[in-house]
Amino acid sequence: MEQQSESSTLSTALADNIDTLRRLLPLEESFDLVSRDLYLGETRAFWLGVNGFCKTEILQQIFSDLQNPVYTADGRVENILRYMNAKIGYAQTSLTDSWEEILRSVLSGPSVLLIDGFSQAILIDVRTYPARGIGEPDSERITKGARDGFVETMLFNANLIRRRVRSPQLVFSVHSVGTASQTDVAIAYLADQVNQELLRTLSETIERLQVTSLTMGAKSLEELLVHKHWWTPLPSVQTTERPDVACSYLLEGHILVIVDNSPSVLILPCTIFQFTQSAEDYYKSPLTGGYFRLVRFACIPVSLLLLPGFLLIGAYHPQLAERWRLLSTEGLTPTRLIVYVFVVEFILDLFKYSASVSSSRFSGSLSIVGGLIIGDIAVRLNWASTEVLFYAAVTLLASLSLSSIEFSDALRIYRIFLLAATALWGGYGFGAGLLLILLSVLATPTFGGMSYFWPLFPFNGRALSTLLFRRPTFKAQPSQVWNRGRVHR
């Protein structure tokens, strides 16, 4: 295709415009590109669209109206703008004289109507996309509350947000990313709440992106927005598939980034405290929700430190292990205990990964079989001990209780590193490993130079207490608590 050699504007001759379309698009080769020659009275016209992206019933009505003898009584089309406004009884129509806009529109859903004698074309947006139901996302299930979730269609996701936030200040600005994919990316924000500097930085960054495509949707865009080192596994951008969660952050002054073809919505700016929140807390009473929030906070050090701490005491301080009755297996040498810990850690990670990628019909059975049968056989074959299995199982339960999967996976990486350091150098390795983990956490980058530890730094006492404790709704309104202007370092 010779796009570079073509003029950027249309010709007044319909035949020339059709020839240009045939050079720019594989009309004969690609079966999903459909076209139609039309006569609007005595005026020739040409329609082009993508099969499956256009609502056939609406197009049939438009074609029927345009070729109705009452509509074509004038014989010829004299004014294309007047003709569009008077003859096409559909709301989403517009004029363009740019081939670039025509190509982008046709390939993303809207169809184009070319009329002889005019250097402008009519874009008719009757697009529809294949979409699954807006069911509750598996990774963010709750016992009470809304059961809808984002899907792969950006317009549907915007509708789910607009349905909850009916503010005239809500804005969806659309950008295009990817020279080949031309993926639509929408930035959603409340004009009276957003940090204008962060919004401007985000818009400029997205416009400057030079990539071929967003292969993995929102995840690819996340990695393009925040460049991370390999030694900082903590997530730098929060994602959600729940509209109620996204809208709660939107009302707090955050920015949502919606990527077409992706059910995940990015939330900016991001802080480490966001990964300790769960929608479940807010669908329970303040006391109950606050209790489970504290339990979830306690699961963070348990997930990170329980197994390495057990390895440190059991392998390098057997007197303490015997006094505290941490070990019941006699003759368990430090080397064998270290091997046991790593074998069980690998097996449990294997079970968790297998269950996550397996069909929901088999994942529960797979976990039960793995826990009861393989665990028992591992003990009998001296590949594990009951103590190691117990502490590893508690660690796994603590990890699964965390609401953010990415945050839980980052803690797993930290835990494996701490286990390796403890196994090699004992107490010194444990201390040095904790120090390096702390440095890695402190070095975690965020978008726009925002603080990863707000509201702890810069300090905002009311916001911090709201994050740590489940407060009643009338005391936790965003306008009374949040001040995103103080997020900068």
Q: Biggest sheet, strands in spatial order?
A: 1-2-4-5-3
| Count of runs of 4 or more consecutive helical residues | 17
Query: What summary fits the major beta sheet?
Result: 5 strands, antiparallel
Query: How many separate domains make up the residues?
Result: 3
Order of secondary-structure elements? HEEHHEHEEHEEHHEHEEHHHHHHHHH
What proportion strand? 5-15%
How many runs of DSSP E, i.e. beta strands?
10
Low-confidence stretches: 1-6
Give the termini distance in whole angstroms: 49 Å
How would you describe the overall organization of this protein?
This protein is of the alpha+beta class. The protein has 3 domains: 111 residues, no CATH class; 133 residues, no CATH class; 165 residues, no CATH class. It is 47% helix and 12% strand. It has 17 helices and 10 strands. The strands form 2 sheets. A 5-stranded antiparallel β-sheet has the order 1-2-4-5-3, with helices on both faces. Strands 6-7-9-10-8 form a 5-stranded antiparallel β-sheet, sandwiched between helices. Strand 9 and strand 10 form a beta hairpin. The longest helix has 38 residues. It is elongated. It starts with 13 loop residues before the first helix and ends in an 8-residue tail after the last helix.
In short:
The protein is of the alpha+beta class and 489 residues long. Helix content is 47%, strand content 12%.
What topology emerges from the helices and strands here?
Blueprint: H1 14-24, E1 33-40, E2 43-50, H2 56-66, H3 80-87, E3 93-96, H4 99-108, E4 111-115, E5 121-124, H5 154-164, E6 170-177, E7 183-190, H6 196-208, H7 218-225, E8 238-240, H8 243-251, E9 255-259, E10 265-268, H9 279-282, H10 286-316, H11 318-323, H12 334-357, H13 360-380, H14 386-400, H15 405-442, H16 461-468, H17 478-481
Antiparallel strand pairs: 1-2, 2-4, 3-5, 4-5, 6-7, 7-9, 8-10, 9-10
